[in-house]
Structures are given as C-alpha cells and as structure tokens.
C-alpha cells in the first residue's frame, strides 16, 4: 500500500476555522438584510438615484463600522479573559506543580485513559510544555493561538461590506422601473445562499435555515418599503 499525504484540520484548528466561516456568513447576511431594508425603504418614498445611493452608502458604512467595533470589543474581552486564565494557570504551575500534575492526570483519566496511562501522559505533557498542556486540556485554550480582536474586527467589516454591496448595487444600477424587482430577487437569492451555507457549516438541515432567512429578509423589505411608501405619500 502506497503512502499518501493526508492534510486535514483537526480539533481546535477545525473548530476555529468553522467559527470564522460562520461569522463571515452571518456578517454578510446582516449586511444584506440591513442594507436591503434601507434602500427598499427609501425606494418606497422616492426613485431618486442620488437619494438611494446616499442612504445605501450611509447604511453600509454605519453597519460595517458598528459590526467591526462590536466584534473588536467582544473579542478583546474574550482575549483578556483568556490571558487572565493563562496567567493564573502559570502561577499555579509555579507554586503547586504536584497539585497541577495530579489535576492534569485526573482530567486525562476523565477522558477515558486508565490511571497509569493518564499519569504517564500527564508527566510527558508537563515535561514538554506544562502551560500549554494545562491550557488545552483544562481551559480549552491554545496559548499560541489566542483570539485576535483586530482580525475579528476586520473580518466583520469585510463580511458586512460584501453583503451590503449586493442590495446597494441592485438598487442603484438598473433603470428605475427594474430597481425594486432586481433588488428583491437578488436579495432573496443571496439570503437563500447564506442560509444554506450557515446550515451546512453547522451540520443542520438546510431547508429550514433557507426558509427562515428568506422569510426574514422578505419581511424586513416589506415593512421598510411600506413605511417608505407611507412617508413618501405624506410628503415627508
């Protein structure tokens, strides 16, 4: 049997990658829905291209910056908590090495290893890199791969912007008589795609996710278009 190279992500690396992909899909979904709601609402009041473009760009920038700032704050808080937990673990390893070795042994035994094997594994892991062993087994943290708030903020900004560009371009590029129809169709198609993608990433049935996504987007556009139409008719 010939040897074959096998490059496959496992464990935390795969989970981290899936989390980033899922966050990207959800960010794009938010960009699609929120910007579509804005431009469709404005389209209910006016067919002026400048007004539509201004409203759409304002919504895109406000939404992308809000997403990026929120993600930065959230991930910074998570990183602070991870660093604090690692600092505490480092202090415990320095002050109570035997107790920490016993704790690591118990954690490995709880995962199915026999007592002797768990003790031997704990000793080897401790000798190689005690902090990393305890961080990964006890805390579920990789000290060499802590969450990066700047990366998270940039990813959210890009994902939201990419999603928001679709309804913005669909509403401003076609001729006036086609704008609303093109926007609604393209937005619903994009929401079907993001719903399917999020379901696949979560190993869930795609049909309910697609249906919920499309229904939510359609409702958002209907509500904002109705509000825009009423305001336009009232001369506001």
UniProtKB/TrEMBL annotation:
InterPro entries hit by this protein: Ccc1_fam (IPR008217)
Signal sequence, start to end: none
Major subcellular location class: membrane
Keyword Transmembrane helix: yes
Bilayer topology term: Multi-pass membrane protein
Localisation per UniProt entry: Endomembrane system
Transmembrane residue ranges: 20-43, 50-69, 150-173, 180-199, 214-234
Keyword Ligase listed: no
Name this polypeptide is given: Membrane protein
Keyword annotations of the record: Membrane, Transmembrane, Transmembrane helix
Source organism of this protein record: Streptomyces chryseus
